[in-house]
Amino acid sequence: MPTAILADRAIIDVSGPDAEHFLQNILTLDLDALGKDEAKPGALLAPQGKIMFDFLVSRSGDNALRLECRADIADDFVRRLMLYRLRAKADISKQDQPLVAVSWQSDSAASQTDSTATVRDSRFPTPVYRSYANAPATTASEADWHAFRIANGVAESGPDYALSDAFPHDVLLDQMGGVGFKKGCFIGQEVVSRMQHRGTARRRVLLVTAASELPAAGTELRADGKVLGTLGSVDGSNGLAIARIDRVKAALDAGSAITADNVTVALAIPAWASFTYPEAASAEDA
Fold first, then answer.
1. Which of these, 83, 29, 76, lies nearest to 57 by C-alpha position?
2. 3-class DSSP state for residue 2?
3. By the number of CB atoms within 10 A of the CB, which of 119, 125, 151, 280 ranks highest?
4. Within the chain, how many helices (H) and strands (E) appear?
5. Are 78 and 92 in contact (CB under 8 A)?
6. How many Å separate Cα 128 from the centre of its chain?
7. Which CATH architecture group holds 202-285?
8. Which 3-state string (H, E, C) describes 57-113?
9. In this structure, is the dihedral angle defined by the CA atoms of residues 181, 79, 8 and 31, taken in order, positive or negative?
């Protein structure tokens, strides 16, 4: 089973009698649905509904939760959590030398879940495990891991989108169990719930493939002179993009070539996702 160490990750510990209640009231996901052996995606939003911080959350003990995030945003994330803590009895701290290892593509790794230091990453349809204890033997690189992530249509901030520039629906958090629509209020909940109930989410993560190597992240996807979206993570001829699915549908219906810097590409919805292309183009593009 391929295993890689992820050096660009950080861990924030939140513990104490009010830890879960505190996080439940501000984060997008429903912690009541978080099992002891899983890591689920989530976000802390701005009041306007856009993602300020993205992370994976898992249980690390009684009244204790582990937030795994990008290392370069961890200090800001801690400061924001401290701002919202108020009188809640919860300790918030960033680990000094965290270990984050990831293993994937195995049907025989269930024995690893005996400890809260190894949890299943619920974003993926096949078994993926994240380890936070002793360093395992590495058999793969971070590049191998990102190639697997790209192939599965799992976007992350940084390579795929900028923080404060995307709604949860844009990056498929609603498809991954990263938004608790029935749990009640959280920061930005009104905007996100309105998008959900009105079905107005039009920007989505799509798989990108080409017959040749894709251009760099940030390259626009175009068809018939219109911008459809932007490339994110790229692995050779495979990549991810966040695109307007109404415009993609119009291009597909018209048989128009979709290109990224003159490279013809094909776009597809990740197999595990439940959203579909709209029946018709929006009135804006009609």
1. 29
2. coil
3. 119
4. 5, 15
5. yes
6. 14
7. Beta Barrel (2.40)
8. EEEEECCEEEEEEEHHHHHHHHHHHHHHHCCCCCEEEECCCCCCEEEECCCCCHHHH
9. negative
Tokens of 40: 């689920």
Measured CA angle at 161 (ends 95, 36), to 5 deg:
45
Q: What are phi and psi of 132, to 5 degrees?
A: -125, 15
Q: Domain spans of the chain? A: 3-195, 202-285
Amino acid at 122: S
pLDDT tier at 106, thresholds 50, 70, 90: low
Q: How confident is the model at residue 136 (pLDDT cuts 50, 70, 90)?
A: confident
Fold designation for 3-195: Gyrase A; domain 2 (3.30.1360)
Q: How many CB atoms lie within 10 A of CB 224?
A: 12
Q: Is the pLDDT of residue 281 over 70?
A: no
| Average pLDDT of the residues of the chain | 94
Structure tokens at 281: 């183009």
* Residue 244 tokens, joined: 């307007």
What pLDDT does residue 283 have?
Answer: 46
